[in-house]
Amino acid sequence: MPSTLLARLARSAAVLLARLVTGVRADWRGLTPSPEPRVYFANHSSHGDFVLVWAVLPRNLRHRARPVAAADYWEKTRLRRWLGHKVFEAVLIERGVVHRDESHPISRMAAVLDAGGSLIVFPEGTRNLGEEALQPLKSGLYHLARARPDVDCVPVWIENLNRVMPKGALVPVPLLCTVTFGTPIRIGEGEDRNHFLGRAREALIGLCEREARR
Amino acid sequence: MTPDNEAWILFGGLAVVLAVASLVAYVLRRRAGGTANPTVENLVARINAWWVMIAVIGAAFLVGPTGLVVLFAFASFAALREFLTLTDTRRADHRALIAVFFVVLPVQYWLVATGWYGLFAVFIPVYAFLFLPILVAVRGDTSGFMTRVAEMQWGMMICIFCLSHVPALAFLPIPGYEGRGLMLIAFLVLVVQASDVLQYVWGKLLGRHKVAPALSPSKTWEGLVGGILSATAIGTLLSVVTPFSAAEAAMMSLLITLMGFFGGLVMSAIKRDRGVKDWGHMIEGHGGMLDRVDSVVFAAPVFFHAVRYWWTI
Question: pTM, whole model, 2 decimals?
Fold first, then answer.
């Protein structure tokens, strides 16, 4: 997918804006940046979450990391379609539809990894608007890990973006955000869904400063 | 000395001091050999950051009083976001937070720049203090209400109100000192920061007995006494650029270095409570903006009012 100059400019502008508003800082706590294919799985509180992850990835890794996002949101208007396809080059997934062939979401995600790219996924499925730090994780992450068991799944905690831009807010509050990268996990031989998702959940919560203070 | 000369001599002097510091750090690094000593590396980072900070403040001095108003407005902004990041605000506070960042902060610094002292002194303690909880209350979320409001009010007081007293010094009408108000700012910032640096140096050299082990492991009695005495000596020498006599400058230096020390303690207590070591990561080797200005924040209003009471008409 060749990106136009306009799309590239829009991408840089989004990253710059995210940096200015949130002063975002990376904490590579569990690993170092590397171009090998990875699945970054993060908590989800805002539509801008993956821009923040991009903003802290080194430039050479940034555009290999493709966000996985909901088609129903990003296909809705012309502007969103352009942003979703051209600017963010997202892997758009239709929610609540059953797939049987290579258009299956897991196959499409695996294809990105096979081509040397990385993925940014939000296993909570929808934005977290409640009081809990983390919603239950959906099984997509498990199926993806099953499909590519030798790819590192990196827990990523995005702190504060929900306070910067809560749902329905028009103006962001310029609080500081941190993106923390934890120790990668891989699915074990014969590990079942609940066990793997439980480990993924613990890996995420373990990075949450606010939770640690409680 | 003419006002212009004063600034050049002052910043020239600072450049010489920093050059010596850089040289010492270079020698220490050479002596450490191949192994990187974390204390020395931190020292180098701190000195390098000082070069940048002095350059930025120097540029603001070249612009004049307005330059300092803008500089400290940005410092307030950076400090405020560090402070509020560590509070427990909720979604219902969004509008109040917007008001703090984008209304209260610019209005306060506009009041500094226009020299409207009457409103400058009461705008945050009276008006912002009353209207902020109103903005929060009308949203109807009462969970932790008093804590949330109090945290935001503390943030406003510390990061906007107190810090805005630094550039306000340039607008004080002091008979026989017209056009030299910037030197009062230089005096305050220099003495308080020198005290911080010298407390650190004396503490590293001689520090044995901790002053407040529950708050800050690095503050020692030896550092405190040595730092405050030597910073007061510097302040006394600087009396030539102020409206103070040497004895008055010494008393003022003692006042602001003590306030600065206690300011550091209070801000350490907040950091301890929040479980962080530094307020932020903005300034390499120093931490955040608040880590650098915590002492100035506590010294500035007291210094401002002392000068205003005894030296203005």
Answer: 0.91
Flag whether the ipTM exceeds 0.90: no
Cα–Cα dist A76/A89, whole Å: 16
Residue of B nearest to A25 (CA): B281
Lookup result for tokens 């909720």: B90
> Does residue A183 contact residue A31 with C-beta atoms inside 8 Å?
yes
Question: Nearest by CB to B85, which of A160, A166, A171?
Answer: A160
- Chain A residues with CB under 8 Å of B282 CB are 23
Residues B239-270 pLDDT 10s: 999 999 999 999 999 999 999 999 999 999 99
Give the three-state DSSP class for A207.
coil
Instruction: Give me the helices (H) in B122-280, please.
Output: 129-137, 145-155, 163-168, 181-206, 221-237, 246-274
Cα A97 to the center of its chain, rounded Å:
21
**Interatomic CA distance for residues A41 and A121, integer angstroms:** 5
Q: Which residues of A touch B274 (CB under 8 A)?
A: 213
Beta-carbon separation of B94 and A160 below 8 A: no
pLDDT at B289: 94
Q: Do A166 and B281 touch (CB under 8 A)?
A: no
> Cβ of B272 under 8 Å from any chain A Cβ?
no
Does the distance separating the beta carbons of B89 and A171 come in below 8 Å? Answer: no
CA distance A160 to A27: 14
Interface of A with B (CB under 8 A): 23, 25, 160, 162-163, 166-167, 169, 171, 173-176, 209, 212-213
Length of chain A: 214
Residue in chain A nearest B279 by alpha carbon: A176
Task: Name the residue facing B275 among A171, A174, A213 (closest C-beta).
Answer: A213
* CB crowding B82-120: b at 16 or more within 10 Å, else e: bbbbbbebbebbbbbbbbbbeebbebbbebbbeeebeeb
Is there a contact between B130 and A199 (Cβ–Cβ < 8 Å)? no
pLDDT tens column, A35-90: 999 999 999 988 889 999 999 999 889 888 999 998 888 899 999 999 999 999 99
Query: Closest by alpha carbon to B81, among B69, B96, B103, B97?
Result: B97
DSSP code for A12? H
Q: How many CB atoms lie within 10 A of CB B50?
A: 21
Q: CA-CA-CA-CA torsion for B205, B208, B212, B213, nearest 10 degrees? A: 110
